[in-house]
Amino acid sequence: MIRVTCAIIRNEDDEVLVVQRGENTDHPYKWEFPGGKIMKGESEEECVIREIREELSMDIVICRRLEDVIYDYGKKKILLIPFLCDTLDDLPLLSEHIAYRWLKPESLRQTDFAEADVIVAENFLRDPGVAVITKDLTPIEDESDDEEFREMINATMGTREVEWIAKSAVENPVIFRKLLNYSFSGDRKLAFHSSWALSKSVDTHPGIFVEYLPMIVGMLGRIDIESAHRSFLKILTQSDLSLLSEKEHGILADHCFSALRSGLSAIAIKAYSMEIVYKLAVIYPELVHELAATVNMLQGDAPAGVVARGRIILKKLAGINSKQRPNQPLS
Questions:
Q1: Is 206 part of a structural domain of the chain?
Q2: What is the pLDDT of residues 277-286, one digit of tens each?
């Protein structure tokens, strides 16, 4: 029996990622949950994280394991081990599949899955945690409750709970500061869930980060956890960057240009970096041509999501350029 893992990956809108197999595969053109075979000496959790990084260039956090599925295809019999996972990255970079979709859970039953994945989808839809907030948030007023609060953040199951935590952070400065501290921790899951909640809080209260913007800019270069890095870049895209000093603008511009020019930066990081430098270019028009040149450089071999975002940025840059230098088109 072949042991295989798969990931049911949810984004911030509680949509689920499915991918389509190619023509020359065991199940041509069928849809499936991404994953792959467990390697020798590898744990099931390590396998699913590795497979998603290799197949999709995405960073995921495992929430919990779902019910295993045994299926006999005739030529092979598999043990499929599903994990419920969260991600902040909506733009997978396909290396083995020909297409992807983000689907609402209710659409999974209408999807042309491979047989084993049909059972995984059905088990997922019957899971009581799919549509239910399983935790309540009691405001934390002192440091003595810190360990319990950390455990609650780590146990967060999905977007609805994150939104509840974000709402509580807006209402309670103690919770807000705890989440901020956790976001810079070395604990990958804690940093991911905490920074995700903070990025949700800025959706409804853009001004909540005003006094923390200089600190965030100063810490960007020290954040090793990609999901937290992505969250803080998203926060900066929704913040008033004119409140930062000229020195902080320079640090932020250098950081974002480096991310755009690096071959190692994730898709979402490049997309947010473009938007941040565009906002800085509104303040400093001399950045227009440098950003345009950098975006044009990316157009050749960048993933489709980056290319599409780049085209939008180039159009917006053309508007700045026409106001500042009407006779000098962008290169």
A1: yes
A2: 999 999 999 9
Q: Give the three-class secondary structure for 136.
A: coil
Three-class SS of 246-262: HHHHHHHHHHHHHHHHC
Q: Per the structure block, which two tokens stand in for 252? A: 């932020």
| Nearest partner of 90 among 163, 17, 195, 183, judged by Cα | 17
The residue length of the chain stands at 331
- For 307-320, the pLDDT digits (tens) are 777 788 888 888 77
CA separation for the pair 297, 284 (Å, rounded): 21
The pLDDT score that the predictor gives to residue 304 is 66
* Dihedral angle over CA of 258, 259, 261, 264, nearest 10: 130
Which of 161, 223, 247, 246 lies closest to 235, judged by CA?
A: 223
The domain that contains 19 carries what CATH number?
Answer: 3.90.79.10
**How far is the C-alpha of 140 from the C-alpha of 174, rounded, in Å?**
7
Residue 83: strand pairing partners:
7, 65
Q: Is the dihedral of CA 94, 96, 100, 106 positive or negative?
A: negative
Q: Which two tokens stand for residue 204?
A: 């409804």
Are 73 and 177 part of one and the same domain? Answer: no
Alpha-carbon gap, residue 6 to 80, rounded angstroms: 7
CATH number (domain holding residue 177): 1.25.10.10
* Alpha-carbon torsion (131, 234, 169, 196), positive or negative: positive
Tokens of 84: 């419920």
What is the number of domains present in the chain?
2
